[in-house]
Design goal:
Length: about 90
Amino acid sequence: MEHYLQLLTYNFIINNNSDYEIYRDYKFCLFNLKNKYIYELHLDNEALNSLIKKVIKFKTQKNIQISDNDFVNNCFNLINCLNVNTK
């Protein structure tokens, strides 16, 4: 999961960089060495910005207690969101 967040962050930084035109055609991919799968990230700027805002909010908000069931559901929702936007 952390690798996806790292890839999202790199994509966000490049999209908001003054040298964006140089990197515009770069692909953002993760390569799994164990199963030899390549996951390519396909997000438009709006979706990327929304995810980054959620990550920042999550990292900066105070810890709140939620039930195990809610935690698992939140994880599945995030995974489903990432699966929809990767190939």
